[in-house]
Specification:
By secondary structure, this protein is mostly helical. About 80% of the residues lie in helices and about 0% in strands.
């Protein structure tokens, strides 16, 4: 069974008329809104109830079990029924968030409760995320992966924006208990949808049952033997390493140094987010013949834009924000769809977990390095270094002939 020839289990309408896929996209947005509500509530409550150092530990705690368990989650996603894994860990998350809400109604939240909740959510993410990453290949036709990815990313961004705004209001008015209760509702809705309505249309071949560590090793061996998949995995794991530090700390440093104020920082984030959303929406309606090539070309906008953020006047920084956002929105959808379409189906979960693990590990490192360079040298220098290095990375990827020629139109199914 090839990546373009999966066993079809149910009739699959074109994405434009696919009500089940549309409903799942909406539910993904609802879930992301709930996650944003919880993130805001957790951070605010941690700051209010404990020291800044412990608050930082609580907010970051979820990344620890996720990093430790992601590769195990990828193996299970390739071996077991991904839909059942999603259902199970959404039920666990619902139980955890309900327990937090009840605890906060009975008594005051404590650092221990917050830390335990963050750790459990991180552990659930390690198993839920690789499984959910395989659903696109089971739900829509290969030719519709780009449109599906664009719709999903749009719903995710909108859900995150709405949830962040609502989360601030909820935690201020109702405390952590109210925020947790609303998030529990979003988890419950996801559980109901996955249990009742979400049904795979294509059967993915399952990986063999072998020791977990051997399954993980098999995933890395697959990368060695499939150069095109390896190039895509490396690309997807590294495409955020330059823009993330700029968005996370670079713009703030520039705004402070130039006296633009916090408003400039907020406006930059807004224009970048809107441009990313527009880029994702465009893919829903139109996509190029060679998706990977177009995706890398879109990301190529980010290299010069990162440099512009470091040396340009305020208006050019905002234009650069549009370029960074559009490149991420348009490019990531196309590359994500290409990854789902060309990766051997029985390795999708493991490849997705490797990408997530690489991204989670590299972004903090490059962000810290950016701050160190900005402190030890001229402020503009890390922008030049990061923008130039990212441009070199994109050029190298575009020189890969196999990547340039990839097209989801070459196979049906």
């Amino acid at each position: 069974m090839t990546t373009g020839d999966l066993e079809q289990l149910r009739p699959v309408p074109p994405f434009a008329r696919d009500r089940t896929a549309h409903a799942w996209v909406v539910m993904r947005g609802v879930g992301d809104a709930g996650d944003a509500i919880w993130t805001v509530a957790l951070a605010w409550t941690a700051v209010q109830t404990t020291t800044p150092a412990i608050a930082g530990l609580i907010v970051a705690a979820g990344s620890i079990p996720r990093a430790l368990a992601l590769l195990f989650g990828g193996v299970l996603a390739d071996r077991l029924d991904a839909r059942r894994i999603m259902l199970l860990f959404n039920i666990v998350r619902t139980v955890v968030i309900v327990a937090v809400a009840v605890w906060c109604v009975i008594t005051e939240p404590t650092a221990t409760v917050l830390l335990l909740a963050a750790l459990l959510f991180g552990l659930c993410d390690a198993f839920y995320d690789p499984a959910s990453g395989t659903i696109s290949r089971q739900l829509v036709r290969r030719a519709d992966l780009a449109a599906y990815g664009g719709a999903t990313q749009t719903a995710s961004r909108l859900g995150g924006m709405v949830g962040a705004g609502l989360g601030g209001v909820l935690v201020a008015q109702t405390g952590l208990a109210g925020s947790a209760a609303v998030n529990a509702v979003t988890f419950a809705l996801l559980v109901a949808f996955i249990a009742i309505w979400l049904r795979p249309r294509f059967a993915l071949p399952r990986a063999s049952h072998e020791p977990i560590l051997r399954g993980i090793a098999g995933g890395f061996a697959h990368l060695r033997h499939t150069p095109t998949t390896r190039a895509l995995v490396i690309a997807l794991a590294t495409l955020n390493v330059a823009a993330a530090p700029v968005l996370g700390v670079g713009v703030a440093l520039r705004s402070d140094a130039e006296g633009w104020g916090a408003e400039a920082l907020g406006l930059f984030g807004t224009v970048a987010g809107l441009a990313a959303t527009i880029g994702a929406v465009i893919v829903v309606r139109w996509r190029p013949r060679n998706e990977a090539r177009a995706g890398f070309l879109a990301f190529a906008l980010q290299g010069p834009a990162i440099i512009a953020v470091g040396i340009g006047p305020y208006w050019l920084v905002l234009v650069a924000g549009v370029a960074i956002g559009f490149g991420a929105g348009f490019g990531s959808v196309l590359l994500g769809a290409t990854f789902a379409g060309i990766t051997e189906p029985s390795y999708l979960g493991r490849m997705g977990s490797i990408i997530r693990l690489g991204d989670d590990a590299l972004r903090p490192l490059t962000t810290v390095l950016f701050g160190v360079l900005a402190s030890a040298t001229a402020l503009w220098l890390p922008f030049i270094i990061y923008g130039s290095a990212f441009t070199i990375l994109i050029v190298a990827l575009l020189m890969n002939r196999d990547l340039r020629r990839l097209s989801l139109r070459d196979a049906a199914g």
